[in-house]
Amino acid sequence: MELNVLNIEGKDTGRKVKLNKDVFGIEPNEHAIYLDVKQHLANKRQGTHKSKERAEISGSTRKIKKQKGTGTARAGSIKNPLFKGGGRVFGPTPRDYSQKINKKVKRLARKSALSIKAQQKSIVVLEDFQMDQPQTKNYIKMLGALGLADKKSILVLGELNKNVYLSSRNLKNSKVVIHSELNTYSISNAQNVILSESAIEGIESLLNR
Question: Under CATH, what is the fold of the domain 2-29+101-207?
Answer without folding.
Answer: Ribosomal Protein L4; Chain: A; (3.40.1370)
